[in-house]
Amino acid sequence: MKVGIVDAGGGLRGIYAAGVLDFCIEQGLQFSCCIGVSAGSANMAAYLAGQKGRNYRYYTEYSQRSAYMGLGQFLRTGSYINLDYVYGTLSNSDGEDPLDYESMQKNPGELYVVATEAETGRVKYFSKDELKKDDYRAFMASSCIPAINRPYVIDGVPYFDGALSDPVPVQKALDLGCERVVVLLSRPCDAPRKPGTDPLLARLVRRKYPKAAENLLKRAGRYNASLDLARKLSKEGRAIILAPKDIEGAGTLSKNKGALLRLYRFGLEDGEKLLPFLKNESGIH
C-alpha cells in the first residue's frame, strides 16, 4: 500500500510539522510519497535525509538572524526572507548546516515540492530528480511569499509560494497513487481558514502578477476544500490530520522562540497518533 505524507507548511509555524517528522525519524517511519509546500518542502527534505533536529535548528536558531529575514533585508533587496541564505548559504555542502543530499536521494520515498508560476498562476510540482546537490532553488520558489518577497526566478520562470496554487495537496497525493495520506498542518483544523491578509497581498502584486493575485484571493477556499477532502478520507480510515491544538500566538513570520518551542513539542507528542494509523500497513516499515 502506498502511503503519502503532505506538509502544508506555514512559515515558522512549520516547526510543528518538523516535530512530527522528527518523531517519524526516531521511530523509523518511512513514507512512499512526500509532498511539501513552502517551509514544508524543506521539512520533507531533511526528513527524507534522516536529519533529525535539522529543521528544529532552522526554526529556532537561524531564523533569529538578520541574515535570515528582517526589515533590513527587505529594504536592501525587496525580499523580507533571504531565501538564498536559508536554502543556499546555510544548506549547501559547505554551509553551516548542510542538507544531506546523498541520503535524501538514497531514500526510496518520492519527494514533490509545490510552487506556483507567478505569471500564469499554474501549479508546479518539482520532483526529487529535479533537485541537484547545492542547487535547492525549488525550495526557494516554494517558499517565496508574494509581496513579502520578490518572485524567485528559475530558468527564466518567476515563482511564488506553492500555497497559492495547491495549499494542501491531498488530491495530488491521491493522483500519485497514495491509498492513505498523512496531512500535516500548521494551524488548528477545527475552523475554516479565513482570507486574512490575502486580499492585501493580492492588491500589492495584482498590477504585475494578476494571476498570482487571483490565486491569493482563492487560497482560503482551496485550503478549506482540500481540508474537507482530508476529513472525508479520515472518516473512511484513509487519512489522518495532525495539527496543533493552539498556535501559541505564533504567526507565519513570528520569531517568538518560546512559542516555536511549544509548537515543536506539540508535534513530537502528536507524532504518537501516527502509530495506530500506520500499524500493519505495507507502505510503512
Characterize the structure shown.
This protein is an alpha/beta fold and 285 residues long. The chain is built from twelve helices and eight strands. Helix content is 40%, strand content 14%. Strands 1, 2, 3, 4, 5, 6, 7 and 8 form an eight-stranded mixed beta sheet that branches. It is globular, with a radius of gyration of 17 Å. The termini are close together. The model has no long low-confidence stretch (mean pLDDT 95).
Task: Chart the SSEs and their pairings.
Elements: E1 3-7, H1 15-27, E2 33-37, H2 39-48, H3 54-60, H4 71-77, H5 83-89, H6 101-106, E3 110-117, E4 123-127, H7 137-142, E5 152-154, E6 157-161, H8 170-175, E7 180-184, H9 198-205, H10 210-235, E8 239-242, H11 257-270, H12 274-278
Parallel strand pairs: 1-2, 1-7, 2-3, 7-8
Antiparallel strand pairs: 3-4, 3-6, 5-6
User: Could you tell me the number of beta strands?
Assistant: 8
Strand fraction: 5-15%
What is the residue-mean pLDDT, rounded to a whole number? 95
| Distance separating the two termini | 11 Å
SSE topology string: EHEHHHHHEEHEEHEHHEHH
The rough form would be described as globular
**Main β-sheet description:** 8 strands, mixed
State Rg.
17 Å
- Percent helix: 40-55%
Secondary-structure-based class equals alpha/beta
Number of helices: 12
| Unreliable runs | none
